[in-house]
Amino acid sequence: MAPTLHQANQRKWWIAVTSVLENLMFAAVLLGWSSLLLMLKNEGFYANVCLTSGDGALGNDTSTNNNFTTSPTNVTEPESEVKYMPSGYPTCADQDEILNRYFSIGSSLLSGVTVILGVIMDKYGSRMIRLCGTLTFMVSCVLFAIGSLDTENYSILMAPAVCLNGMGGVVYIFTSFPIPNLFENLRSTMISLMIGSYSASAIMYMLFKAAYDAGMPFQAIMIFHASIAFLTFLNCFFNTPGEPIPGPDDLSYAIKLRFGAMNFDHKVTGKKFLNHTSSVGRRMSSIDIAPSEAHDYLESVIDISGKGSGPDQTFLQVLRSPCLLWSFVTMCLTQLRLIAYMGWLELYLRSSAEQLELDDQEAIETVEYYTFLFGLFQINCFFMAPIIGTIMDWNLKGKKKKKKDILESAESSPALSNGGDDKHRKTSISNGHVANGHANHEEPVALSEPEKQFKKKKQQVNNLARAFMITNLLLTLFGVIVLFEKILPLQVVAFIAHTAIRTFLHSSVGGLYACMYHFSYFGKLTGLVSFLSAMAILVQDPLFVCINTSLGGDPFWINFALLVSTIFGFGLPIYLWRYGRNMKPPPSAPPQEREMFTINEENDEQEDGFKLDIPALRLDDPGVHVSSMALAL
Question: What pLDDT shows up at residue 247?
């Protein structure tokens, strides 16, 4: 039975922690391709394309390993093009092209399927999608294990295995995006942790490679991974809610998450009644009790619960916005740069070894050593998540006045010395208002709610501009370092920059869509940008073929061209800077229009407490406005 949103809110820390761990173990393990590739080659996947004799059979020799020779005598390709793995299986450029093509397809599906998932998740929630994704990933692990039993005949199983690996993995991270909605004041930080664990999941295949080198069979590794995937299926079945988690700005956020124990399905006393009475209460709290000829009281009894919570832009208007278009350009170029580097890492290292004139054994050791380092540094993605989360959440809460300072400033104010009893005065002070019924309001105690929202929105835009600027500076530094192929120790810096860029990019894009657009579009926009970046990733396959053929295995000029294209990524932070500077504050609301029924979730004494903050009312005071919801409670 799927838990309700109220139950999910009570288990929010368990859901968040397990989601981070699941993302770390499954979300983007395919990005650890450099380690997986060495295991696949050592198992002999598509090794038969390297050793084809004149009559179509493999060469015969006295030293064999699973029907493949370690010292072939009859081969049609030049002997210099064929190298051998430690297990004795051959490896060549043709095999590299086939395996890289599978990686291109799998990594594209890792992003491409999100455009469909986003539409489904925005409407029906993430429960069924996550259940199907866990089973899909489990099947991919089983296919890898079956294919390795007889690679000569079952290598073709690698195609569906890689595709299902990418499709199932992305479901973990994509269905984790609504979870930060349970943490209103830590939303960007939680999104960054989710994306950091997603990016760091590439370390899993590095750990599996270490276990493989220690003697653990490849089949056992894949079955072990499939078993853990089944545990995530059970966790999703018992803890993932069956309806979408609303955003903090949604009108039903507090109702569904805080009052979930109430019966909101009843026709008279349920959710419809609560929405109606709260809507009327909000309408009455903004008018005087005295009759007004200019006010239409019929409008007060209309159920306006849907107003204010819907999007102010249609989806087509959002698609035409410059901010979204710049994010598409930035995401596509950066994803192509990052994914291509991961797929070509062995090619880079092999080219560097050839330029350093290392022998075959030293070249193999160099490739394995730096591949291990690259896989090890993937955990840095997780440590980068709090950094980008702090950048995007910087100075959003603002400084709060202590209750003692508010009391002292209010008591010294002349507005309180002219009327009202002590009880009324203390109640008004505790709520941050000076409500004594007189027109002496020279200094407002606090900003109005629209002004607070404007200030917060502007700070979010500035924070996002900083985040994207830092990301593009790191991408430029990464592109420059990659050009120096002969200095292998310098590539370690490129490994670290690569992990930071991946975490910063996805976190910044997620924060951008959460800030700039309505939460109901978040899944669609995330899926669309992932789909477009998946289309860009497909370009890496013809580029890889070009490097192997036209450029003779030297990727220098391709890297230089990609470095030049990095300049387009600076368009988004520049646009955000200008957008933040041109933002205009909302018009100030009259002081008497304030809402008497408030939900206070920020209690100084109890951080997790929840209370209804209803000021004391004096009906003989002309400055008081009555909320019907407050009176009803």
Answer: 65
